[in-house]
Amino acid sequence: MYKAQLQPARQQLFSVLRTGTGDLDLISGGDFTMTSPFGVYTAGTQSAGVGAAYNLPRANAFDGTLLGPDGTTFTPYIDGGSQSLYRAWYPEHGGNVLVRAQGDVKGDLIGVRGGQYRTDAIGSIRAHVGSTAVGNWLWRQGTGSAVTGSEGVPTAWWVNFGSYVAGPTDGYDLFSNAPFLVGFTGIGTLGGGNLVLEAGGDAGMLSSRMTASGSFVSRSQGLNLAVASTGRVSADGKQLALTGGGDLDIRIGGGLNPVAEVRAFSSQTGDVTPATRYSGVHSDLNSTFVNLRGALRMEAGSVGGIELRFDRADPAESRAYDVYKATSSIAGGGPVLVPGDAGVRIDTRGDLVLGGVGDAGRVALVNNGTPFRANGASYTGDGWTWFSLWTPGTAIDLFSAGGNLTPSTAAADDSFASNHSATDGRFMMPSVLRAVAASGSFYYGNSSTGAIDGTNRPVQSNTTLMLAPSPVGPQYARTGAGQLELLAADSIYAGGYGITQSGADPTALPNPFNAAFSGSTVKIVYGTLKLSNISPDGLAASVFLANNGGAGTYQAYPLFSFTPPTASGYAVPGSQPARFYAVDGDIVGLRTGSIISRANGVGSALTFGNWYEGGGPVAIRAGRDLVNAGTALGEAEDVPVDGHGWYIPPRRGDGTFAEKPVPVLNASARGNLIVHNNADDVSVVSAGRDIRFGNFYVAGPGLLEVTAGRDLYMADRAELKSIGPVVNVTPGDRGSGASIAVAAGVGRNGLDFNAFARRYLDPANQAEAGRALADQPGKVVAVYGGELKLSDWLRAQFGYAGDEAGAPAWLQGKQAELDSARQQALAAGAAATNRDLRREYGLAGQLHLVNWLSGRFGGKNGLGLHFDAASMDARQFFAALPPEQQRAYLRNVYYAELKAAGREYNQAGGPREGSYLRGREAIATLFPTHDAQGNALAYQGDLTMFSSANYYAPVSDARATKRPLKGVTYLRRDAYKAAGNPYNMGVYDLLDAGIHTDFGGDIDIMTPGGRTLVGVDGGFVPGEGSGVLTQGAGEVQIYARDSILLGQSRIFTTFGGNILAWSAQGDINAGRGSKSTVVYTPQRRVYDNIGLVTLSPTTPNTGAGIATLNPIPEVPPGDIDLIAPLGTIDAGEAGIRVSGNVNLAALRVVNAENIQVQGKATGIPVLAAVNVGALTNASAVASQAVSAAQDALQRERTAARQGLPSIFTVRVLGFGTDADEAAPKAKEGAKAAPASYDPNGVVQVLGQMELSEAQLSQLSATERRNLRR
């Protein structure tokens, strides 16, 4: 009885107001309001010549029926028989639609019901189908490469104006098995034509039509606007016929969804009140704007709204709480965009919120797929097709002139099967997203919700947002590079939420000419065997992983079905970096790019390669502070299962059929990751004041530049690391990774590289040889603006007398000569240095501008530039380069000047012996004390890093502690896993802050206004990851105004790199780190196309302190230059180890006995230990002298290691104020013991004040020179 009487009342029926090819105008002097579902559109007319292949019969459900067990009454209307009304429509020539109201415009949208049920007297009401779902009215087909030839289904997408579909069969609601009537409801031009909507007042959600939770019935006054288009790919796959399209123009005088109490939702029941601030989002109720072919333009006073919160901070904030600064908000009311081949631009005067973005060719479908044939067998349904309708021209531009901006609230909406659902374990957007908050800030992630869980922890979404690669294919009229720009006048509050530009292969994305497909074929043990063209390396659609039919799944159709979502190495010349700019404010919780580690759980023998999310260089600039960027040390983020990838487990059971495909079990992510593809790629991270806890990883070649106007505070929570190439990897490659340049305390305006370039590149500034440099203001010893030819370098090194043409052959012969001599020495058991002349010339040549430009821009490069040394002026070309490119070159020139100055200081008889003038001139040029107007410039700021650990007790959901708990035994994480994760033991994670380049790349550090603190004394003992390390071919170059302190940490080069450190006013201290710590070089693991693994050898090194190591004989030695003109060089307990030559220049060098040198040593004092207690014993004195002489002779390797004066430090602690009562008193009248100076004694004093010529003759040349300085 209930079924007969009440079923019609439970149907989601809709009405239609439409024309065909004629225009449709709806004009009101007041409001325009929909109070029931209506389809208001122009339908156009059916295209001519639509063949049967594009009008397939409707597909059966998994139970073999068209509409389920309760749909027999409606089946005749869709089964293709005489009563059937269904057909695939490809309309064209549709009319235009105009909706104009002087007042407000309100629609009627029905959303997906929440998880609660309203029980009537007859039972629970079933869920509705969301009325904005594009899958209601845009259907698709195509088997792609899964089935080709005569059996293949050609790709197509068409309009369903209205038809029945099967209801869900897995619920307990009343009439859940009854069919649904679905089609388009809203306002649109479905057959083509322009759509214009104008509202003089507000639009969208102005009053509530539901409870705050939307759990029972989701309904709103939002708008559903669409410009449709259809397409058919010819049977031969070469032609594409498109219909429809037009422009969508929306103009709203007020705001879209302007009422905060109406646009905010909660997961709980109850109504919104001023005291209850809900932050939930139901995007399908906010409005949906679709344009599949054309342009979408919107102008409004505001779109959605952002309520600022002063009661809680951004969860990524680590600074003191500021009650006057809103770092958190509640954003809502943003529409969902579904563009096809369309550009989107939204301009607002106030706030701008975007709900999400969908791809019409990959949205969930409400039908049963399509029928298909394969291998001679016919299947009546469950054939699922997906492809992207985004093109290189698809772009989204957002501009808020006077408000704040939220680029997406999708992460706050966890509904499945929505237009903007996370299809790839990530929310996808087209390749171009440009957003500007011209007067305000960005709020996204948790900063746009402020949501917390039951334990008062912030609710963070691990479903990040990713921009798709810009698709590449012959079908596109043009191709281009993607672009990501978030530009704020004030601040960016990201809440730790990731927004990333993908670097995946753009040639392997599903499109109409290469559709993705999954179809159910025969029934097997676990369900149905799937026929699909999904790549084993890609992401699997939910219909592919389903045991049975796909209609009952949430239907996530990934963009990365044919390629993994990892960096591919594909790069478009001239691509712009991803930009995150906060002009006057802060960037808090920035997250972009990820290293995704995949595994299948404890004890599993299956391994899966890492994925690297990122698509080119980035530019991150904050006018004030950059806070908590990336994933903190010791932490990782879960990845949604749809983003793990899939595999087929080893066959088991009866073995008749392959096992069921399943997702990879575990995946975790760390960021920020920057992926470079070209040697000239430069990523810039800059803050006008402080950088606190910034984690950045860079893959590939190029340079990562990190600059703080004041402090760069890494503490024990951050690291900067170059991980080397991740695409087309060569196992033995140790030299192609990116370099890292770090600067702290440079001031808001930075360093004066322009003045430095003018001075050191202009030949007119060449100093006159033979004259003192101090007498030639503005002149320089070396000018680097020219070219260093190979012949010139060989002439300076070996006296080569030939021309440039013969230089390569001569170098080859000289290299063979050196190699032969080295092999003979090694055979004789002697030590021999390995020299690589081509590498040495390359390093020297890169200091000269012409060489550098030729190597960087002479061939293929990321900027798309070309430099020809024969026909172009090098300095003019250089001046036109972006500033970060110029700095990449000039930094090396600066350090070359510092190194030369330190060596000239110790050069006996040299033109600047005992003088640091050359280096100080370079320092003064790069770090001027006054600007052009004469205003004083201040440099203040330190680089700080150290180590600690997070301890986790053996209890469920234990929070980390910084100290071990009493009575708990802890294992380090790797040992804990090796022990099988014992339940009764705690575990700790090392937090080793550091700066590393793992597979090549230099490390440059500048602190012109403070100290460089690499580690601290005491506290937690650092692990092997702490400090500054180049673990491939790379150098370390450091300049600090104050001291360079290592504490218990290290500065290492391990594959032939040099180390240069200059402390202008402080000390260089190698610290007291453990000599037993083992530092392993990262192992390179490379998988080939059949799964075989190639591993690079590991080369463990030990210790701390300062060292240039060459653990493999073929690795060239590394030199060390340490210069502290006003301070002390202290080898400390950790020591200094040098595989090449060492040059030390300082006021004092202490603990020199802890310096180990394999090559030439300059500047190390000779130690002469004297036993004062044996002064009365002549034989003891002689013995000590002999011992000291032997020790000195052993340390002196060459004549250049000249004896410097020994330094004795005498500290008088005090003379006291009272007489020592215990001392015997002298008798009255007693004579004092005679005291006299013995000129022949051990200690001699040479004069006072001015010395005579005779006294001066007793001093060494160095001592005389020092007295005259």
TrEMBL record:
<dbReference type="InterPro" id="IPR021026">
    <property type="entry name" value="Filamn_hemagglutn_DUF3739"/>
</dbReference>
<feature type="domain" description="DUF3739">
    <location>
        <begin position="1056"/>
        <end position="1166"/>
    </location>
</feature>
<protein>
    <recommendedName>
        <fullName>DUF3739 domain-containing protein</fullName>
    </recommendedName>
</protein>
<dbReference type="Pfam" id="PF12545">
    <property type="entry name" value="DUF3739"/>
</dbReference>
